[in-house]
Amino acid sequence: MSALLDAFSVLAVSAGAFFFLAGTLGLLRFPDALTRLHALTKADNLGLGLVVLGLLPRAEGPLAALKLVAVWLLAQLAGATVTQLIGRAARRDGKAA
Amino acid sequence: MIAHATTASGFLLVLAIVFPAAGILLALTLGGRHAERITLALLPVGTAVAIAIACEVWRAGDALVYLLGGWQPPLGVMLRADGLSAVMLVTTSLVICAAGLFGRAGFRTPENLHEARAPLAFWTLLLGVWAALNAVFLGHDLFNLYVGLELLTFGAVPLVALSGRPETLTAALRYLLFALLGSVLYLLGTALLYGAHGTLDIALLAARVRPEPVAWVAAALMTAGLLAKTALFPLHLWLPPAHAGAPAAASAVLSALVVKGSFFLIVRLWFDAMPGLMPQAAAQLLGTLGAAAILFGSVLALRQARLKLLIAYSTVAQIGYLFFLFPLAMGPDLGHSWQAAAWTGGWIQLVSHAFAKAAMFLAAGLIAEAVGHDRIAELAGIGRALPISALAFGLGGLSLMGVPPSGGFVAKWLLLTAAVEAGQWWWALVMLAGGLLAGGYVFRVLGQLWGDANGSLALRARVSRRREALALALALCALSLGFLPLQPNALLQIGRPHAAELVVR
Amino acid sequence: MTISIAIDVGLALLVLAVAAWIIAVRDAFAAVVGFVAYGLLLALVWVRLAAVDVALTEAAIGSGVTGGLLLAAAARLRSSEAPAANERPGATLRVLTALLCAGISLGLAVAVLSLPDPAPTLAPMAAANLPATGLGNGVTAVLLAYRAFDTLLEKVVLLLSLIGVWSLAPDRAWGGRPGPRRVVRPDGALVFLTQLLPPVGIVVAIYIFWAGADEPGGAFPGGTILAAMWILSMLAGLVEVPAISRRSLRVVLVLGAALFFAVGLAGFFVADAFLAYPMGYAKPLILVIEAALVLSIAAILGMLVAGPPERTEER
Amino acid sequence: MNTAALFGLLGAALVGLGLFGLVVHPNPLRKILAFNLLGGGVFLVFGAVARRGAAAGMGGDPVPQALVITGLVVAFSATALAVSLLLRLFQETGRTTLRDEDGGKP
């Protein structure tokens, strides 16, 4: 049972790390603000989500698990807002066109 | 392990810091005219506390101690007042009183307003500077002293920019950056000393510290930082525009007291926390920088066209004398008679400069108010219109030159004889040259003030006799120190284990 | 063991690289963005140094609020960058400065490496005295009991710097509100965030302050998170920045320090010293002081970020 | 090499970098940034000292840790005051330089 959970954790966190890597690569290589944001949100969204998912079975109790999920949700909320703001600013400056 | 206990009247040390600090809170909450009323009410109270501390130290013949929260160092923080602290506390309270009473005219809340910017800022910041200085003079823990030092910075910097003129904003920003660099270097040294000895208490450090790389690096960093705050040549660049740009009441406090706070900590560091550890070369280096400050500052003061800048450059020079303490009052073998003489001379120099410089800034402020500018070349004959201010300026100037009877004379005479007795005659030469140069710039101004007015002398504004009297009172304080006997002062030695034996010989 | 050392070395190199970039990059705005990253990386370093309290404070104040303040300043100063270029010191001076700074770093490194082993520490003494304070977190005990006087004076430092910031206002704006008026866009993403986040943030702030008695946390990070929520609401235009003459604002600003002073002075009479807590009442008193400090810290930090008053009050 | 020594050395390096920036950059905003960077280095030296002092079930000596927390708050107040001074200077004169008027002109 615990071996299975460990395997799940390793798998999920690795997958999350892969998305972070891909997101970072995109951030560096993509040509303009909007496509870069696209890459970044993937890292935030899926990457962090998978890392949290992988860590959930290792949480010390329900409260700790709840905190982990809260971290993910808050990061989502902040990420979505900031992305929206940057996107709007980029469109206004005409750099996205 | 040294065990400390709170002394009977130790609570006075707490009150000396708490009164002005709590006054800030009250002044900010009530706001408006109350800020002025609260500060003015605290002036006599705080002065009484300072004098009471001095009397208690004198009576007990030993330092007063207070353990905050009842916690013993090294875990807890302790306040301690020795004779030196007592002298500094009293000097501070007198200068603050004069600056506060002087500031009433310039920082009154206008009738039609509930609250105005400059008055609220001035009164609260004045209390802040007072609380900070008392914390610095009473602190016995290196980090607590750091917080006191920062409090001093945050009180002093906005005072510089109080008028809001662009050039004072530049001066304040430059001052702030120098001061922040200074305190962060001090903090770095504190970290190293704690890492090496596990305590920040000065007495415990003195017992544990050894001559080794950590101690050298820590002390070098702390000294460099404090020198930047004290504006010792060549780190003096920030001082003249800052001190000259501030309103007169604030300039008096900045020049007389604030730079002395960080100097006081350099002395605490080398004489109390790391006694006997300063290498001879370092002491000579500090003395040399002091000598350079005297010559350089005086020459620049001579060349200034504006009165307040002249006084500010004179501060750069007069700070230099203080640094003769290191080569003259310190050494590998304690117990020479000249060391006690230099010790007393150095501190009398500090106190008499505080009074004299405050008097000169207040007098210059009154002259500038009356004439509308402070260009020395156009001040001819002002002495006839404002005789008391001109007299205060002149008497303060006599003390800077070291003419008897004045505190400056006693200080310089003691330092001079110490230099000769110690066989370090070169300091004596610098002091003589410094006195001549000071005579040059003081008489240059006096000659104008009492000279013949070219053309009609129109005063822009009348200044009250009361404010002139405040400047004169400060100058008389500087003068009265000239009646001290020309020998080591016993009060200044109280509570100093490493210097106590000096008095006896 | 080796993996954790590898992580530490990697982290240290990353911090160093970001720091070098902050100093070297031409654009001031970019440097500030780098500084925010620097602060977050330092927070990770603090976790690696087993100082979670410091990590929280660093992330909240060192990186978060300081970063926000500097970003806003950099944005306002963007048009002023060009003329400073001719003041850059010459190459010789730069090389000399670099050598001097390298020398200082080297001396410091020698000092750090020559610290004694075993290291002197006050941890056992701090732990032994914890029962007297009723607290479980050593750092909170240092801040509010052993070295409470430092904390008290530092509150006065905060207030004094706020007075200093206010004193930079134009005379006519005194008593008014800081910053330009914000226009609310009801559909904006920022408004959406501001409607959702503060309730959560306030709960988090209270939790962090409350947990601080026994676990990492305390008044500083708690107060900073509360301040962040307030600043966010002010930025989104949902909450007006209060006029600095408001009596209620003044009261909240000084509340923490005033209560701290009052309890300290009461110590003269009911305990045996200034800032001593009466036997058995230490923990409740500390929590009450901390609660007031959270409010005051939030108010002071928020007002420090808002800056000096610029608009006179419309009456 | 242990964690404390490593980050202590990092602190030493950051102090040097921050000092360099503080002296060399003519722009006051960059000076303020460099000061904060320097402060980070100083705090890390405290952190190394604290970590070395781990004992009595504590991961580090709580005293230097608490000092860093106090120091962080003081550094923030300093930054806020410096930034306000700089912005006001910019508002008044349209420039951000520490030179005196005569020196600033070409």
Structure description:
- The complex is a heterotetramer of chains A (97), B (505), C (315) and D (106).
- Chain A has 97 residues and is an all-alpha fold.
- Helices cover 86% and strands 0% of the residues of chain A.
- Chain A contains three helices and no strands.
- Chain B is mainly α and 505 residues long.
- Chain B is built from 20 helices and two strands.
- Chain B has helices spanning 11-30, 33-60, 83-106, 117-138, 142-160, 166-197, 202-208, 213-230, 239-245, 248-273, 280-302, 307-322, 325-329, 337-371, 382-385, 387-401, 407-421, 425-450, 465-480, 500-504; strands spanning 64-67, 78-81.
- In chain B, helix 8 (213-230) packs antiparallel against helix 10 and helix 14 packs antiparallel against helix 16 (387-401).
- By secondary structure, chain C is mainly α.
- Chain C has helices spanning 2-24, 28-48, 52-76, 91-113, 123-133, 138-146, 148-166, 189-211, 219-236, 247-270, 282-306, and strands at 177-178, 309-311.
- In chain C, helix 3 runs parallel beside helix 9, helix 8 (189-211) runs antiparallel to helix 9 and helix 9 (219-236) packs parallel to helix 11.
- The model of chain C has no long low-confidence stretch (mean pLDDT 88).
- In chain D, helix 1 runs antiparallel to helix 2 and helix 2 runs antiparallel to helix 3.
- Chain D is elongated and about 55 Å long.
- Chain D is mostly helical and 106 residues long.
- Chains in contact: A-C, B-C, B-D, C-D.
**Radius of gyration of chain C (Å):** 22 Å
Mean model confidence by pLDDT of chain A: 84
Radius of gyration of chain A: 16 Å
The strand count of chain C comes to 2
User: What's the arrangement of strands in the largest beta sheet of chain C?
Assistant: 1-2
Between the first and last Cα atoms of chain A, what is the distance in angstroms? 53 Å
Global geometry of chain C: globular
Oligomer: heterotetramer
Alpha-carbon distance between the termini of chain C? Answer: 67 Å
Low-confidence spans of chain C: none
Helix content of chain C: over 70%
Helix % of chain A is: over 70%
As a percent range, the share of strand residues of chain C is under 5%
Total count of helical runs of at least 4 residues of chain C: 11
Mean pLDDT of chain C: 88
Supply the key terms:
heterotetramer, A: 97 residues, mainly alpha, 3 helices, elongated, D: 106 residues, Helix Hairpins
SSE layout:
The complex is a heterotetramer of chains A (97), B (505), C (315) and D (106).
Chain A: H1 2-29, H2 33-55, H3 62-93
Helix pairs in contact in A: 1-2, 2-3
Chain B: H1 11-30, H2 33-60, E1 64-67, E2 78-81, H3 83-106, H4 117-138, H5 142-160, H6 166-197, H7 202-208, H8 213-230, H9 239-245, H10 248-273, H11 280-302, H12 307-322, H13 325-329, H14 337-371, H15 382-385, H16 387-401, H17 407-421, H18 425-450, H19 465-480, H20 500-504
Chain C: H1 2-24, H2 28-48, H3 52-76, H4 91-113, H5 123-133, H6 138-146, H7 148-166, E1 177-178, H8 189-211, H9 219-236, H10 247-270, H11 282-306, E2 309-311
Antiparallel strand pairs in C: 1-2
